Amino acid sequence: MTGPFKRIALAITFSPTAAALLREAWRLKRWLNADLVLIHAGEKTPEAEAKLNDLLAQTSLPAATPIAWQRGKPAEAILKACQENHIDLLLMGALRKENLVGYYVGTVARTIMRKASCSIYVLTQPSEEPRPMKNIVVNAEDSPHIGEALRVGCWMAEHEKESWLHVVRELKLMGLALVSADQCSEEEYNKVQQNLLREEFAAVEKLMQSIPHEGVKVNIKVLSGKSGFELARFAGRKEADLLIVGAPPRKFSLFDRVFPHDLEYIFAELPCNLMIVNPRKEGSRG
Known about the structure:
By secondary structure, this protein is of the alpha/beta class. It has two domains: about 1-125, Rossmann fold, CATH 3.40.50.620; about 130-270, HUPs (Rossmann fold, 3-Layer(aba) Sandwich), CATH 3.40.50. It has helices at about 20-30, 45-60, 75-85, 105-115, 145-160, 175-180, 185-210, 225-235, 250-270, and strands at about 5-10, 35-40, 65-70, 90-95, 95, 105, 120-125, 135-140, 165-170, 215-225, 240-245, 275. The strands form two sheets. A ten-stranded mixed β-sheet has the order 3-2-1-4-7-12-11-8-9-10, sandwiched between helices. It has a two-stranded antiparallel ribbon with strand order 5-6. α6 packs antiparallel against α7 (about 185-210) and α8 (about 225-235) runs parallel beside α9. The longest helix has 24 residues, at about 185-210.
């Protein structure tokens, strides 16, 4: 069965995790029934080609796997290769912090995520062996691609069989702040809070109505507080295997308000693998 992505790519370097990333990419290719392209930001030299062929041999990937060699600055080279190869989903490895506490998205990856016209999948701990996804968290906020993010999450949870899909929504605190300013009673305040919670639950349920998810175990969670921070904490508490968010709007004024604030908490210390859903327009496929 064809998955939500038709053409995937792996941004491959000669890092210690390269072999594991290749195995993850190959498993994802087969799972999604997608085409796989390897992207290397660098000049195609005999030495580099030999290293990459050796990696392919180590991981039992077919020698005929397409490789896009792209010269230039890493971020620009990878973005150009994604465009030229009509990539729907780009896989990248995350970097470990110097204090070894967690993983974070580095400068090159952030540049790619800000400018990419495709979806991005950041792997924190690529595994040599397949690992099931028991908990998938989807953020249902701050993106014009909420529906697409939920569809990807539902598809993955359905095909993982035993997965839980946690759909996270933010409680709009402005309403509570206005009620509090009026110095209402505790009973009135609690009533308003419960009404707001019901509204957010209803909004998620409405979103889910148009998305096939028969047999998927769904948990709707409404969080209060700084959305990116609380989202990362929730994913950590659930020991999530994957966090899915919709790409922010492409207008830079709004984009820059979203990333450095709400989602910066996630990028600074990734709680798990991260997928940013940014559906390609059909016209961009060439």
